[in-house]
């Protein structure tokens, strides 16, 4: 069965963005970037890959699901398919028609459950926190790019969700001179 993987940058105090939704406090330079590009190229937007002269490896993810606020970041720049190298799903209740190549879903939990039953690679949960909180029952793996900053407030890793305890086991942690740590967790079998 396919995995739903929440791959996200996060502060030491558990925020994925500032209160206004900005994430520019997270460093985009440092020795951790080479690992992000080489191992997680499928999770880099197509226009960024193109600007870097790269292409997605196509070996980790073949599908992305993101919240409407995350999708709107690219849409404001006129980019209707930020992850054109992946099957794209956007959780939204807007009722507006989706651009060609993008699927809008008002029930992301049901959508993820259906996707997990289909053959394919991993499903990349791009954000945001509220969506991650609603999909927590289906998240199989967390890959956290823990940044050496304290935001103090903002968008929480799992949004406003108050879930029952779900255990994840740490299966790997790599630290970099930049201060970033990539922590990988899998849902506990217990």
Beta-strand content bin: 25-35%
What is the approximate shape?
globular
Major sheet details: 8 strands, mixed
Look up the CATH topology of the domain at 4-18 and 58-154: Dihydrofolate Reductase, subunit A
The CATH architecture name of the domain at 4-18 and 58-154 reads 3-Layer(aba) Sandwich
Any idea of the CATH class of the domain at 4-18 and 58-154? Alpha Beta
- The strands making up the biggest β-sheet line up spatially as 5-4-3-6-1-7-10-9
Secondary structural class: alpha/beta
Stretches where pLDDT is under 50 for at least 5 consecutive residues are none
Task: Report the order of strands and helices.
Answer: EEHHEHEEHEHEEEE
The helix tally amounts to 5
Give me the Rg, rounded. Answer: 16 Å
Q: Ends: how far apart? A: 19 Å
Mean pLDDT across residues: 93
- CATH homology superfamily of the domain at 4-18 and 58-154: Dihydrofolate Reductase, subunit A
DSSP helix fraction: 10-25%
Number of strands: 10
InterPro entries: DHFR-like_dom_sf, RibDG_C, Riboflavin_Biosynth_HTPR
GO molecular function, one term: 5-amino-6-(5-phosphoribosylamino)uracil reductase activity
Domain Bacterial bifunctional deaminase-reductase C-terminal: 103-181
Organism: Acidipropionibacterium jensenii
């Amino acid at each position: 069965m396919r995995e739903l993987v929440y791959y996200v940058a996060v502060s030491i105090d558990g925020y994925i963005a500032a209160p206004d939704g900005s994430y520019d406090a997270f460093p985009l330079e440092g020795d951790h970037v080479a690992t992000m590009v080489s191992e997680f190229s499928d999770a880099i937007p197509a226009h960024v890959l193109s600007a870097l002269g790269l292409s997605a490896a196509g070996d980790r993810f073949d599908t992305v699901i993101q919240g409407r606020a995350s999708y709107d970041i690219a849409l404001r720049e006129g980019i209707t398919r930020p992850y054109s190298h992946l099957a794209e799903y956007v959780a939204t209740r807007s009722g507006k028609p989706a651009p060609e190549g993008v699927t809008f879903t008002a029930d992301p939990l049901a959508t993820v459950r259906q996707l997990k039953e289909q053959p394919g690679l991993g499903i990349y949960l791009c954000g945001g926190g509220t969506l991650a909180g609603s999909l927590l029952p289906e998240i199989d793996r967390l890959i956290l790019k823990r940044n050496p900053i304290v935001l103090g407030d903002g968008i929480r890793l799992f949004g406003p969700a108050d879930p029952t305890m779900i255990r994840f086991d740490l299966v790997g942690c790599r630290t970099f001179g930049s201060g970033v740590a990539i922590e990988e967790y899998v849902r506990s079998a217990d």
